[in-house]
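The instructor's notes for this session suggest beginning with a concrete chain rather than abstract definitions. Hand out the sequence below and ask the class to guess, before any prediction is shown, which regions might be ordered.
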Amino acid sequence: MQRENILPSERAFAYRMKSEAMKRQGFRTDLTSSQVVTKLRTDDKVAQGFG
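After discussion, reveal the predicted structure:
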């Protein structure tokens, strides 16, 4: 987010756009990652990115 004063509806729209973009990237299985470790969901990644 670039602006300080942003409407809640604009913020929600930006979060939705980022979430949809991340979902479209597809799934990848890493052979180096442990099978026990759970991968983050898209909404969790978006939430961590925005704090």
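Then share the key points. The chain has one domain: 8-49. The chain has a mean pLDDT of 73.
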